[in-house]
Specification:
With about 110 residues, the protein is mainly α. The chain contains four helices and no strands.
Length: about 110
């Protein structure tokens, strides 16, 4: 039996054009997601920089791309399991910060 991928499902229902359209849709989704992450990262880095350091947003985008690009060239994603764990821990930390600063603590309890 064939693998159940978006390309194979679209190819079997619509034909070769459907497979190409499915691949283009996945490509557009991935490029859009990557662009969104780069915009958020560069905006966050601009807000964190000190007034003495005035790097433009493009410098942060180039730094982020240079950091992530070698990871995109890996043949197997098994090596990224540790970075995935770090990403999940970072998201948990952000959720904790949102909770701590969003809850209206009473006068002697809060941070």
């Amino acid at each position: 039996s064939a693998d159940a991928t978006l390309n194979s499902i679209a190819s079997s229902t619509i034909g070769h054009v459907g497979g190409v359209l499915a691949d283009l849709g996945v490509l557009g989704n991935c490029v859009g997601g990557a662009a969104m992450y780069l915009i958020i990262a560069s905006t966050s880095m601009e807000m964190l920089q000190s007034p003495q350091v005035s790097l433009p947003r493009q410098a942060y985008v180039i730094f982020s791309v240079a950091l992530v690009f070698p990871l995109c060239l890996l043949r197997r994603v098994h090596g990224l399991r540790f970075t995935s764990i770090l990403g999940m821990l970072a998201m948990a930390f952000i959720c904790l910060l949102v909770f701590v600063f969003a809850v209206p603590w009473s006068e002697g309890i809060g941070f």
